[in-house]
Structure prediction request, 170 residues.
Amino acid sequence: MKQFATLLIFFGLTCFLFAQEDNDGITPVTLDAITLSPINVAYLNKVNDSHTPEVVQELQFKAANFDVTSLSEYDKKAIRTFDVIFKASNGDIIASYTADGSIVTAFENFEDIVLPMTVRKMVFDGNEGWKMEKNRYICVFSEDNLTKKQYKVTLTDGNHKKKMTFDFDE
Prediction:
């Protein structure tokens, strides 16, 4: 056991000795710092907030980071836009991109999603005993502006129905 401990210490020290060797004349190079940011930051800043459901946020990030040059129809010289549909099990985002990859318009439509806590509180405040039958989330983004962000909720209590609309437009 004494020999094992001695060998362990010996190998441990040799690792430190090799780590202290010279770099064989190689001089380190310092690179300039660069900042990378997604091209569609304006889109994300407008459509994504505390009232945005998680499933929608995931597709919004995919849309914002989508590489339009990966499309077979991509032509940098084309003046037209490229429409891309991002699908989830309960909704989709239809985004139009310019040739440089900027989102010009986006239409988000989701049904029967888990509402964010802030929206749930608004829905059930004063509606104790009611059950949510269905809901719909709609968001429209156009030319760097949020033109519509809305929840439509249908509540039921027995044979009674109540429809509610919540707008979160700017």
Observations:
- The chain has a mean pLDDT of 84.
